[in-house]
Amino acid sequence: MGALTQNTPRWALPTIHLDIALFQGEDRCWVGHCLQLDLVGTSRKFREDALRQVLALCAEQIAYAISYDCLEYLFKPAPSEILRKFLEGRILTAGRLAENDNKGGLPSNPIEFQVATS
Asked: Does residue 6 lie in a domain region?
């Protein structure tokens, strides 16, 4: 496969699978933490907001890495305590981000995700 660019058709982009740990932090704030990218979304009230926030951050980060050809810096694992929260949790939901979920206008890989909550 050739280099990925802004002109790469969406169908040619590989699917990226993300695992999200969703939990309440020490301050009772909901936290969504992506295991593969070490990105975090938070919400004081609703776990769904934390999940939406972290997924939006992931989509933007992936699109940026493709557009600027810096994929070698994309994946950074979350700390082991976050992995433990994911593994000890129960699967809450799984899904796929729609094409229009990427607000930045950059090309984005299809993103499948799985969420576990404690």
From this structure: no
